[in-house]
């Protein structure tokens, strides 16, 4: 089983990255092959809305550091997206990546019963951290993106969400989130 992990935080040792790494370590111990991309270290542009992926190519026409990431995610059975909450949403780094995944949709995706260029049956783990301790705040983020990723073929998805962490730049994850990551790895790999 192949896992591609896309890290959306600029903090490589931050809270979301720590949960993601824990998941990946457990998954690797269970036999998965993992690959990690830290978006903040890459050079790339957001979607240019050129529609080349709908008119002349079956992939994104832009050639930059995201080309490799988009290809690796297409190949992988499991996608891990890890992000801090910024202004009630995902990080800008991750948003630009997700916009580029528009290239995964076929030209007639609105009417096609199989709208995605990705193979079906993939799994998605979304990891979101936020400073605000109230779980009712910003809880729209996962359902919003989950809907789009279901369209791509991610039929099995899971959220690990840590609230009330990272204020003032701290890495202060309670142990239970690492345990959640281990449990997710066991469930996804078995
Ligand atoms: C630019 C910026 C915007 C943020 N916006 C929010 C926010 O809207 N809501 C919130 O609860 N926390 C917000 N935070 C706090 C982060 O979400 C929190 O510290 C998170 O745990 C950091 O994750 P990381 O350690 O993986 O980078 C913000 C932090 C930054 C730097």
Q: Kindly, what is the distance between the CA atoms of the first and last residues, rounded to a whole number of angstroms? A: 10 Å
β-strand amount: 15-25%
Alpha-beta content class: alpha/beta
Under the CATH scheme, the architecture is 3-Layer(aba) Sandwich
- What's the level 1 CATH class? Alpha Beta
Specify Rg, calculated over alpha carbons. 16 Å
Main beta-sheet annotation = 5 strands, parallel
Could you say what the CATH topology is called? Rossmann fold
List the helices and strands and how they pair.
Layout: E1 2-7, H1 15-29, E2 33-38, H2 52-55, H3 65-75, E3 78-84, H4 92-100, E4 122-130, H5 141-152, E5 154-163, H6 175-189
Parallel strand pairs: 1-2, 1-3, 3-4, 4-5
The structure holds flavin mononucleotide (FMN).
Gist?
The chain has 190 residues and is α/β, with parallel strands linked by helices. It is built from six helices and five strands, in the order βαβααβαβαβα.
Describe what you observe in this structure.
With 190 residues, the chain is α/β, with parallel strands linked by helices. It has a single domain, classed as Rossmann fold. 35% of the residues lie in helices and 20% in strands. The chain has six helices and five strands. The protein has helices spanning 15-29, 52-55, 65-75, 92-100, 141-152, 175-189; strands at residues 2-7, 33-38, 78-84, 122-130, 154-163. Strands 2-1-3-4-5 form a five-stranded parallel β-sheet, with helices on both faces. Helix 1 runs parallel beside helix 6. The chain is globular. The model has no long low-confidence stretch (mean pLDDT 97). Flavin mononucleotide binds at residues 9, 11, 14-17, 84-88, 129-132, 138, 165-167.
